[in-house]
Specification:
mainly alpha; 14 helices; 3% strand; transmembrane; membrane; HGSNAT_cat; DUF5009 domain-containing protein; transmembrane helix; two-stranded antiparallel sheet; 2 domains
Length: 377
C-alpha cells in the first residue's frame, strides 16, 4: 500500500537508515560470491568486519524509529498493541516468503532470517517502550546482556557437557537444533546466525536505539544531545572492547560485547548525521545536498531490502543459453557478459556488479521519493 511521506521525520535518521540499507544491499549482492573483498564479508567466527556492523545498525535504527512512531499520537491510540503485532507478523511473513521462494519446500525451508529477527525485535521493543520507563529499559538491557553472557559461558550444553562458544556445540546451536531441526541456515544446517537464543541480545540492541530515540525526542538543547550521544557511544565501544577479552565479539552469536561495540558505533554514526544534517543545516543549508539518495533508501528501507533479495532469485529462474551451449541464470549471464570482460581483477568485477545493483535502486527509489511515495509494511 502506498502512502505519502510523513511530515514529521528526523532527516538524519532516514539518512542513517538509508546508508545502512545501501550497505546491506552491497554486501548481499556481489557479482560473484567467490571473489569478494574481505571487508565486505562477515568475520568467519570471532571478531568483526564492517559488514558485521550493518544488521545491528539496522536494529538500532528500528529502536530509534519506535520512539518517533509510538511517542506521538499513534502510541496513544486504542489497539496500538494489535497494530504492532500485525506489523510484526507481516515482517515475519515476508522473511518466510523470501526463505521459501522459489521452491516453497515447506519440509526444509529456513524459519529464522533477517526480516524475522527484525520482526521479533520490533515487537519486543515496541511493547517494552509502551509499558516501561527509560530507567526500566536501561536495566533490561543490562539484564539481557549479562544473562546471555552467563548462558553461553556457564550453562552446560546438553549432550556436550560443558559451556562453550563453538559454532556447532554452543547453547544457542543446541536450542536451534532442538526446536528448529531441518529449518536452519542451509550453509550451517545445525545452527543459525539469526537463531532463537541470540534474539535476546538483539532485543538489547533495539532497546539501545529506543533510549537514543528518547534522548533525541527530549527537550534538551541539540548540542547536549550530540554530546551525550558521543559520550555514550564512546563508553559503549570501550565497554565492548573490554568485554571482548573474555566474551569475544561475535556477530553470529550476537554476543554481549558485540552488542556494546555495535550500539556504540551506531550512536557515534547517528550523532554525526544528526549534527551535520539536522543541526548545522540551519546555518549551512548545503549540508543536506548529498542526503537525497540515502533518504530515498531510508524511507523505503524494508521494500528495497525485500525486493533486492527477491529480484536476483527471479532473474536466476530465467535461463539463458550461452554460445558454448550451456545454460545459466539471467543474473549470472548479465554478470559474465557486462562485467567480467571489462575488469582485469575478478574482485573488482564482483564489486562493480554490486555497486551497479545499488545504482539501479537509487534511480528507482529516487523516483519514488520524488513522487512522495512510501510503501508501508
Amino acid at each position: 500500500m502506498a502512502d505519502k511521506r510523513h511530515a514529521t521525520r528526523l532527516l538524519s535518521l532516514d539518512v542513517f537508515r538509508g546508508i545502512t540499507v545501501a550497505g546491506m544491499i552491497l554486501v548481499n549482492n556481489p557479482g560473484d560470491w567467490g571473489h569478494v573483498y574481505a571487508p565486505l564479508l562477515h568475520a568467519p567466527w570471532h571478531g568483526w568486519t564492517p559488514t558485521d556492523l550493518i544488521f545491528p545498525f539496522f536494529l538500532f535504527i528500528v529502536g530509534v524509529s519506535i520512539t518517533y512512531a509510538l511517542g506521538g499520537p499513534i502510541g496513544q491510540q486504542k489497539g496500538v498493541a494489535g497494530k504492532i503485532l500485525r506489523r510484526s507478523l507481516v515482517l515475519f511473513g515476508l522473511g518466510l516468503f523470501l526463505n521459501l521462494f522459489p521452491k516453497f519446500d515447506f519440509a526444509t525451508f529456513r524459519i529464522p532470517g533477517v526480516l524475522q529477527r527484525i520482526a521479533l525485535v520490533y515487537l519486543a521493543c515496541s511493547l517494552i517502550y509502551l509499558r516501561t520507563s527509560t530507567r526500566a529499559q536501561s536495566r533490561l538491557i543490562v539484564i539481557l546482556l549479562i544473562a546471555y553472557w552467563l548462558l553461553l559461558t556457564v550453562v552446560p550444553v546438553p549432550g556436550v557437557g560443558y559451556a562453550n562458544m563453538e559454532p556447532t556445540t554452543n547453547l544457542g546451536a543446541w536450542l536451534d537444533r532442538t526446536l528448529l531441526e531441518g529449518h536452519l541456515w542451509a550453509s550451517a544446517k545445525v545452527w543459525d546466525p539469526e537463531g532463537l537464543l541470540s534474539t535476546l541480545p538483539a532485543i538489547a540492541t533495539g532497546l539501545s536505539g529506543v533510549l537514543v530515540g528518547t534522548l533525541l525526542r527530549s527537550d534538551r538543547p541539540e548540542a547536549d544531545k550530540v554530546a551525550w550521544l558521543f559520550a555514550a557511544g564512546c563508553l559503549s565501544v570501550v565497554s565492548g572492547v573490554i568485554w571482548d577479552s573474555f566474551f569475544p565479539i561475535n556477530k553470529a552469536l550476537w554476543t554481549s560485547s558485540f552488542v556494546l561495540l555495535t550500539a556504540g558505533l551506531a550512536m557515534l554514526g547517528l550523532a554525526l548525521c544528526y549534527w551535520f544534517i539536522d543541526v548545522q543545516v540551519r546555518t549551512s543549508p548545503g549540508y543536506r545536498r548529498w542526503t537525497t539518495p540515502f533518504v530515498a533508501f531510508g524511507v523505503n528501507a524494508i521494500t528495497v531490502f525485500f525486493l533486492s533479495g527477491l529480484i536476483p532469485r527471479i532473474l536466476n529462474m530465467i535461463r539463458v543459453t550461452r554460445p558454448d551451449g550451456t545454460e545459466v541464470g539471467a543474473r549470472e549471464w548479465m554478470y559474465q557478459t557486462f562485467f567480467v570482460p571489462y575488469f582485469t581483477s575478478p574482485y573488482n568485477a564482483s564489486l562493480a556488479g554490486a555497486v551497479t545493483f545499488i545504482l539501479i535502486w537509487v534511480v528507482i527509489l529516487w523516483w519514488m521519493y520524488a513522487k512522495k511515495i512510501i510503501i508501508k509494511v
